[in-house]
Amino acid sequence: MRIRLKGYGVKRAGRHAAEWVDGIYSRGLDFMKTDGPRRSVVVVGIYREAEPILSMVNELRKSRHDVTFRLGAMGDIPPELLDATTHSHMNAGKFQNLNVLTEGMGEPDWLLIIDDDVVARRGFLDTAIELCERLDLALAQPAQTRFSNANWPLTKQRLMTVARETEFVEIGPVTLVRADARHLLLPFPADLRYGWGLDFHWAHIMKDAGLRLGVLDGLAVVHASRKVASTYSWDAAQQEGREYLAGVPHLPTTVAKANGIVRHRFVPQRQRA
């Protein structure tokens, strides 16, 4: 037992060291110009309580882009989120609720889907859109820090990496969807409550359309307040996912366990028109 605990301590210390190195490395993104075209962005998400999603909303409000919020409260709308929330008492499944929130939202350049328990770095949205456009990513997500509750190995932050081109982007906790990808992926399946397996179908759709996916390591978010499936049944979600994937084309789960196709260790240059 002592050996195991000692080994665990070494592993944890290694994670802290890697996070420290990446904290310095990712600060290089602060010097990246984010002066590309101004985009329209719609932000959707469902929340239980005001925090920490309120902090996320306040960070996103600082963006240079045109940001519109269409959040949904599972209960009453707290006063501090009144101007960012369009629906209350939303008690259906996540993607069933998201279909309601995205209905009638217009044609934004980007759709940003957020869970209610993530913390992002300063300047997250402007930097994320800039990276996506420089790498031509139509579907992307920030990596999760090494101490976050990530469901798939691919989504954990990689050492000294700005971004990776991948074959897979998870359904949460934060997902960026470009307009062309949105037209392929929305509306979400109306009979999916939990959404497990949906991202493997997304992977097939995106590959078939020739659109790029990616993970933004330099913008890793903290997703540690709740464990995966802590607010719903793990078994029910897995069963729903298996049944869903049995009826749709999808890529194998190995794509979520890989390291990615291309790793970018330096800030990519913006392509000239």
Structure, explained:
With 273 residues, this protein is of the alpha/beta class. 32% of the residues lie in helices and 20% in strands. The protein is built from 7 helices and 9 strands. It has helices at 2-26, 53-61, 94-102, 124-135, 179-185, 198-209, 234-245, and strands spanning 40-47, 66-73, 85-87, 110-114, 137-144, 163-166, 174-178, 212-221, 262-264. The termini are far apart.
Low-confidence stretches: none
Q: In terms of structural class, how would the helical and strand content be classed?
A: alpha/beta
Q: H/E order of the elements?
A: HEHEEHEHEEEHHEHE
Q: What distance lies between the first and last C-alpha atoms, to the nearest angstrom?
A: 60 Å
What general form does the structure show? globular
Which whole number gives the mean pLDDT? 92
- Biggest β-sheet: count, sense, barrel? 9 strands, mixed
List keywords for this structure.
9 strands
Short description:
It is built from seven helices and nine strands, in the order H-E-H-E-E-H-E-H-E-E-E-H-H-E-H-E. The chain is of the alpha/beta class and 273 residues long. A nine-stranded mixed β-sheet has the order 3-2-1-4-7-5-8-6-9, sandwiched between helices.
Secondary structure: elements and pairs:
Blueprint: H1 2-26, E1 40-47, H2 53-61, E2 66-73, E3 85-87, H3 94-102, E4 110-114, H4 124-135, E5 137-144, E6 163-166, E7 174-178, H5 179-185, H6 198-209, E8 212-221, H7 234-245, E9 262-264
Parallel strand pairs: 1-2, 1-4, 2-3, 5-8
Antiparallel strand pairs: 4-7, 5-7, 6-8, 6-9
